[in-house]
Amino acid sequence: MTTPDKDKVTSSTPTDAKVAADEAATAAADNAREAEVVADAEVIEANEAGELDSELEKAAAEAVAGVIEESEALAAAKAEAADWQDKYVRLHAEWDTYRRRMGEQREAEKVRATEKLMESLLPVLDDFVRTVDYAETNGETGLLGGVKAVQAKLTDTLAKGGLEVINPEGEAFDALACQAVGTVDDPSVPDETVAQVYQLGYRMGDKVLRPAMVTITTGGPKREKPEEE
Fold it and tell me: Digits of tens for pLDDT over the chain (229 positions)?
């Protein structure tokens, strides 16, 4: 039986296997890089020769078209925003102008209304002057009648301007038009009846300019509430 030669026997260890695997992986990576370089060179050469694949050309064209479309949409949006901003600025300016004109118009109307009232009161002032002159010349005889005539004329002038006298004597007390300054015991009339008016009140339309100062009765029967319609 022949014994094998020890120099001719090869043994495989894990370290040797790992080294061999690393070398194989390195060789494969080198081959891949070489193939990539060759492929890139071929693409560049094909592009320079006008032989770029039609699919790549189509994809590039679509990408360019998309960019152009987005740019146009952005430009349109910016234009629309600028247009709305311009409209807002002009509308704000028009509103300021309108508000200023309305304020000036209201002030002018107040002035005209005051002028009209003053003009309507001038004849009343003339009557006062004549009444005082008459009293100084002829004494106090007939002065009361003249003063009453001037008062009636003044009241009529103010009534034409919308002023209404509040004189609720004998009527039910209305807290919105009257101010009670005292009470009077009177069981003959319903409770809270205006007994006496110390100072007349005045209103214009639905607004009470000054409530009447009155005294009201107490001790009488309760006033029946008006029936609701």
Answer: 444 444 443 444 445 555 555 565 565 556 555 655 555 555 555 555 554 567 666 776 777 777 777 787 888 888 888 889 888 999 999 999 999 999 999 999 988 888 888 888 899 889 888 888 888 888 777 788 888 888 899 988 888 888 999 999 999 999 999 999 999 999 899 999 999 999 999 999 899 999 999 999 998 888 777 665 5
**Cα(169)–Cα(42) distance, integer angstroms:** 117
CA-to-CA separations, 59 to 53, 70, 71, in angstroms, rounded = 10, 17, 18
Q: State whether the Cα torsion 207-152-180-168 is positive or negative.
A: negative
φ/ψ (deg, to 5) at 189: -125, 160
Quickly count: other Cβ atoms within 10 Å of residue 21's Cβ.
10
Q: Give the SS3 label for residue 154.
A: helix
pTM for this model (two decimals): 0.53
Tokens of 167: 């004189």
Residue that the structure tokens 């004849």 belong to: 123
At a CB cut-off of 8 Å and minimum separation 6, what does 195 contact?
A: 169, 184, 186, 214, 215, 216, 217
